[in-house]
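Example 3.2
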Amino acid sequence: MVGTLLCIGMGYSAQALAQRLLPAGWRVLGTTREAARVAALGSAGIETLAWPGTGPLPQLGEASHLLISVAPRSGGDPVLAALGAEIAARAAQFEWVGYLSTTGVYGDHGGGWVDEQTALTPSTVRGRERVEAEAAWAAIPGLPLHIFRLAGIYGPGRGPFAKVRAGTARRIIKPGQVFSRIHVADIAQVLAASMARPNPGAIYNVCDDDPAPPEEVIAHAAELLGLPLPPAEDFATAEMTPMARSFYAESKRVRNDRIKAELGVKLIYPTYREGLAALLAAE
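Structure, written as tokens:
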């Protein structure tokens, strides 16, 4: 199966999907708000348009598949604000539509497990905005929508090694705190698998098999590098930006059974250990 994928917001995850699809013969279109990125993305085979987020998007009429990877704002989803009416009018045109959301929609569960059936009780502004955006996309009649709730993303250029090497990494200790993660290559794998098996209305958690305390990941990175263990700091007294501190407001373990059972996904990096080892080997 091949087609034309339009990625509105050619970010980190969308680029990973593009690099998976292009060798298979797909045509990949994308948008960016930064004109300086157009040439770089074009050299990677992605037909990219500098789109400011307002006004028409001519590429929309060329797409058989649509991926939305733009975050909502306080005023709502900017893609729906700009293109919602046209997307609704073209709903029958699309074979598959994907929306990249976040596991932050589940809120805090004190380290307990959540799955796609868990009630959405976000405790952060970002999480509440995502819940509203999911609902707004799902309200478009006839749109073959698939929602992907992504855990914390890491991958090439987004690992802990740089900070560990620079001596700026910290092990923030908050008892009971765990996060779920996902390597960007596995995000691309899940999206491609869903495109091959469309199931409009489906929601998938996209995470690995090993929710873990953040300090363990930092410690493992230092061990792989053969460097000293970064210092431990108590969360209650550690100096952190409000944004960084907000990530610790929620603790949960996210189940990923559905991507395996329904999409046949076998994770490339089932835990952060395999993922970090691969990142280091690639260097």
